[in-house]
């Protein structure tokens, strides 16, 4: 069976969906925290990018699950042809499966409650304590570093354009998930979560 995929149409669909969700999320945050509007229909809960178990979460989890499936198909195809780095393709599929599940059940939020995180935070200078307010970033940064090092040869092996796209996508994702989370932690440590500044930083993330 042959499946034809129209890449331009899929890209347009994804961009439109993400834009709609992002604009809706920004609008409800500004309305609530910036303008002080009441929310009798719980639109903030439904569209906010700062909240969980809502439309943005569903979209994100769905995109990551789709990526996991596509990566598994690639891995299976590579395995059948005896291509190198099959385990790396399967590894990517597993990682995206985990990310999709994490979006739904909030595993990384629970990581902030681990005692080991508090021990790490105790070792850093006071000037960095605010940035590490969400202490899950510490074990996450360690795991990401190990992951990146283990995939260097895989990236070199890929066609140049594919490698560049992998690196660019990874930089955007990690930059949002970990990098901006540091700014969000710093802000939260100073001003708390119930304000427009928190909502806007979290929206950018």
Walk me through what this model shows.
The radius of gyration is 19 Å and the shape is globular. The protein contains eleven helices and no strands. The mean pLDDT is 88. The longest helix is centred in the C-terminal third of the chain and has 32 residues, at 160-191. It has helices spanning 7-34, 43-47, 55-81, 86-105, 107-111, 115-123, 126-129, 137-150, 152-157, 160-191, 196-204. By secondary structure, it is mainly alpha-helical. It has two domains: 1-51; 106-204, no CATH class.
- Percentage of β-strand residues: under 5%
Number of DSSP strands? 0
Rounded to an integer in angstroms, the radius of gyration calculated over CA atoms is 19 Å
Number of helices: 11
Outline type: globular
Secondary-structure blueprint of this entry?
Layout: H1 7-34, H2 43-47, H3 55-81, H4 86-105, H5 107-111, H6 115-123, H7 126-129, H8 137-150, H9 152-157, H10 160-191, H11 196-204
Can you summarize this structure?
With 205 residues, the chain is mostly helical. It has 11 helices and no strands.
What are the salient characteristics of this protein?
about 200 residues; mainly alpha; about 80% helix; globular
């Amino acid at each position: 069976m042959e499946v034809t995929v129209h890449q331009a149409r899929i890209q347009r669909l994804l961009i439109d969906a993400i834009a709609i969700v992002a604009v809706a999320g920004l609008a409800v945050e500004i309305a609530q925290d910036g303008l002080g509007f009441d929310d009798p229909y719980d639109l903030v809960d439904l569209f906010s990018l700062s909240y969980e178990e809502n439309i943005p979460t569903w979209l994100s989890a769905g995109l990551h699950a789709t990526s996991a499936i596509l990566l598994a198909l690639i891995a299976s195809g590579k395995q059948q042809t005896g291509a190198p780095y099959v385990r790396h393709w399967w590894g990517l599929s597993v990682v995206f499966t985990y990310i999709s599940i994490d979006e739904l059940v909030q595993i990384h939020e629970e990581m902030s409650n681990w005692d080991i995180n508090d021990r790490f935070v105790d070792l850093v200078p006071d000037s960095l304590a605010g940035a590490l307010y969400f202490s899950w970033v510490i074990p996450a940064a360690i795991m990401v570093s190990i992951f990146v090092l283990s995939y260097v040869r895989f990236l070199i092996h890929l066609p140049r354009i594919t490698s560049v796209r992998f690196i660019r996508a990874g930089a955007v994702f990690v930059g949002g998930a970990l990098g901006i989370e540091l700014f969000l932690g710093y802000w939260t440590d100073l001003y708390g979560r119930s304000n427009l500044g928190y909502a806007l930083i979290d929206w950018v993330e």
